[in-house]
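Q&A FORM
Asked by: J.P.
Topic: structure of G domain-containing protein

PROVIDED:
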Amino acid sequence: MTAPPPLLDVAGALLTEAAHLYRDRPHASRVLRGQLARLGEPLRIAVAGRPGTGKSTLVNALVGEQLAPVRLARRDAHFTWYRDAAALRVSGQFRGGPPRDLAVSRSSDGLWLEPSSMPPANLDRVLVEYPTRALRDMVLIDSPALADSGDGERDPVAARLAEEADAVVYLSRHAEPAELSGLRATLDSPVARAAPVHSILVLSRADEIGAGKIDALLSARQLARRSRRENGACAAFQSVVAASGLVAFAGKSLQDEDFAALSLMATVSRADLERYLLSVDTFCGPRFPVELGPDARRALLTQFGLFGIRLAVTLVRTGCDSRIKLSAQLAQRSGLSELREAIGGNFLERREVLKARSALLGLESVLRAEPRRGGERLAAAMERMLAGLHEVRELRLIAALVAGRLSLPTPLRDEAVRLLGAEGTSVPERLGVEDQRLVPEATIEALVKWRREAESVDSPAPRRQAARVVVRTCEGLLTRTAP
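REPLIED BY: S.T.
REPLY: Here is the structure written out as tokens.
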């Protein structure tokens, strides 16, 4: 059995053929060359959402630095890209012009462009380059807020996300259909609808659930799991997680003086301190039970929020007796680790299929906007490639199994999820073996088992269909292990 060519090689060959066909069409040629270049770039992951969902805060938490947002004097809406580099550098890309370096200053709430460096009104995007391991395998895109109207099809921000991002982390306060409609424009094409595997939903104000009580983050995680299982509006997302970017970044950026202030507050009894944590006014008011000035309290409030302060003080009282311990606990409880795992498993380890999807979307847009003789052959080749994207079927089946939308007995479900690559995409990880010598036997054993499941007349049709996807996966593993 011969292994198929790598997915990106197939996509690259298709784009190259298209670029040759459209070599005399400047706009189409530029789009296709851009798509070819993207195949070798890190994955582009956009952070998107309605106003006030905490996009920039989550970007900071993922990067581990206070870099977002990049603020302009005119407060123009712009896309900001964050990319790994040897040193901090900020540049602007202008519509109809070359990129230009921009002078910035760092503050406690992001980056500010210096007045002397203020760009003209045709700024298209800002690129922030910064040395961090968090961006080695991806480019993060902090997008302007999506329209609040719920009419995502006409939202230019959503349309641009469809063109420029390989994957989207979508932030929402609630898992309601109206709140989740902002990505509709990113699915407004046959290719996108056939491969809706590019987005993760984050319930981003997790600390606000349950009126900000101390167990709010736990309640938010339970809500995310329930939404994933039962909420049909979440079916388009590969995963649903709950996270508080504010708590996550507060943990990552915790300083000794912050820990000292929180420890001082923890010396006050719970009952006496609680009344000062009911509102911003009472927390920053003239009276306070410890020697902590209004400016220091306002700084803590900006960094943690009331819920974060309440949680941090509770953690100090219950054993987090050092800055390092408290930092780790805040990051863990924030949901950031779960979000990183979702990004890794659904996006980074599936880079090839997401890159191929972007390539097909770019080609589709060219064929639709500028039809010409010879395009029919390209469209047919594109359809064949899309039909053969087994990796898309794997991702959709993983989401259905994990969310409980498709039921299998627990042992079968766990094995299917592992074989489909949810716990790692290498052959040993899929097969659940550590000794490479056991791989051939384990592959054949899995293939025989799942063929039986696929052919069982006693199983309902959805179960047999799911088994056929796993069989195709096992056949692919067999080609990868064949001598």
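FOLLOW-UP: The mean pLDDT is 88.
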